[in-house]
Amino acid sequence: MVELKKESSNRVSTGTLTKYSFASGSLGGLTTQLNVFLPSTASSSSPAPILFYLAGLTCNEDTGAQKGGFLNTAGKEGIAMIFPDTSPRGAGVEGEDDDWQLGTGAGFYLNATADKWKKHYNMYDLIIKEIPAVLKEAGLALDWSKVSIMGHSMGGHGALSLYLKNTGIFKSASAFAPACNPSRTPWGTNAFTHYLEARTRSSPPSEWLEYDSTHLLAASTAPKGSLHLLVDVGTEDKFYKEKQLEPESLKQAAKERGSDEELEVRMQDGFDHSYYFISTFAPEHVEYHAKYLKA
Amino acid sequence: MVELKKESSNRVSTGTLTKYSFASGSLGGLTTQLNVFLPSTASSSSPAPILFYLAGLTCNEDTGAQKGGFLNTAGKEGIAMIFPDTSPRGAGVEGEDDDWQLGTGAGFYLNATADKWKKHYNMYDLIIKEIPAVLKEAGLALDWSKVSIMGHSMGGHGALSLYLKNTGIFKSASAFAPACNPSRTPWGTNAFTHYLEARTRSSPPSEWLEYDSTHLLAASTAPKGSLHLLVDVGTEDKFYKEKQLEPESLKQAAKERGSDEELEVRMQDGFDHSYYFISTFAPEHVEYHAKYLKA
């Protein structure tokens, strides 16, 4: 049994945000922290639906909780939120603290397969398997049959790709300024080159496509019309201009799949990549997920 | 003419948050920064009413803008917001960076009179006189006939005391966990001892009472019923428990003045001193001021 340690607790909105830590098997035994918001309406007889928020490069489990502006709407809707960290901490991999786009703060929500990284860098398993198992075991009043996911930037990539790989787990996904096509864009190709052992010689390697939302959407076998995806991107986002995000590729994938109504991409005039952008549309994203979580 | 320099700009809510800097006469020529939120409805023919937010110890002009959760409501109401810094930066006063309760990040919204501090530590003049003058000169679409003020902790002290000393300027004041009686509580007495030259031998010195909201409210000559004050304090606020805040003293002062309906003090069950507390009640505070700013 994993020991879930309570690090701190704050009353907020209609409930409580608690920071927990535990020694993670997925992360090679390293301690990971996460924040869990539980509305006061949640109880063992009436557990709350769950909305994950995955943060972006250089962020941690506090960023979305403190700056995102999600909790008042989540509280009003009676939705719990889970804010994981963005990478292992203190893995001791050579060079992990040298580049903000790789290593600490940059786990990319995948399971590493390259020798150097594979012991610790398994954020995919942490979020899909271990956090749910640990929180279930702890008996938190969470309804694991009603789960959705959202994220920002690298975490937007995480939200979209985890959803598309696990449509049986998640009801809906949304993202702010996500990296939609990381197998072809700079952050993603850099991360995948390091984290993933590519056994194939295709370009991009098939191992990369497993974490590429554009590919995952085009190739999805989910029944047509069953997916629920919302994406917001600011027109003044410098990373959009640098072609890190590529929401057009995701739209094209939806079109190829033959069901563009499953994906709404909204270009938000004048907004940038910051939490000022996120906090502006945060209530709308929570309401979007509420539709599916409370259906 | 003071040069108002634009440091950055972010679209947020229904408008834009701009960070400005200028060389401040009040602060002995040091450069100060502030954030200004202007809703898109503001124009020279229809300038926006103004709500100041004064942050607490260790904070700066970004803290309230990023973590406060004010801007969506302000934007909806068409209200501008001004977020000043909490002290001069880089004054070079001996010891100003040694104690989080004094010096940098701890200007206490007063004009220093002690020799060591008086050249730079004049946050009162900065906010009451210089920021309005500089922003007027720059032609921002702000309506200086409609101004209210709020703040947190040390900034709650600032909001209440600046309001009570300037009821001709401000329409209303509100505060989260304010230091209500700083002439008798540890943060305040420490700051006042250093910043203010006490010529009188009374205890507390009369110079201190000029910045003590409890004293200012009890002694106010404003017409009965004309004041508008809202205060929220969390029951689990450790600084409340340590008697740094003393909202009961402020309530007593309102009672002595004979018009308790001018002040609402709400004890918020289970909340602490953090921005999780502030962001929960931020929309209510903005709506409170909107009543008076848009009357």
TrEMBL record, chains A, B:
Main location: cytoplasm
Domain of life: Eukaryota
Record-linked InterPro entries: AB_hydrolase_fold, Esterase-like, S-formylglutathione_hydrol
Keyword check for Hydrolase: yes
Subcellular location: Cytoplasm
UniProt EC number: 3.1.2.12
A GO BP entry: formaldehyde catabolic process
Key words, A-Z: Cytoplasm, Hydrolase, Serine esterase
Reactions mediated catalytically: S-formylglutathione + H2O = formate + glutathione + H(+)
Key word Cytoplasm present: yes
MF GO annotations: carboxylic ester hydrolase activity; S-formylglutathione hydrolase activity
PANTHER family linked to this entry: S-FORMYLGLUTATHIONE HYDROLASE (PTHR10061)
Function: Serine hydrolase involved in the detoxification of formaldehyde.
Sequence similarity: Belongs to the esterase D family.
Protein name, UniProt field: S-formylglutathione hydrolase
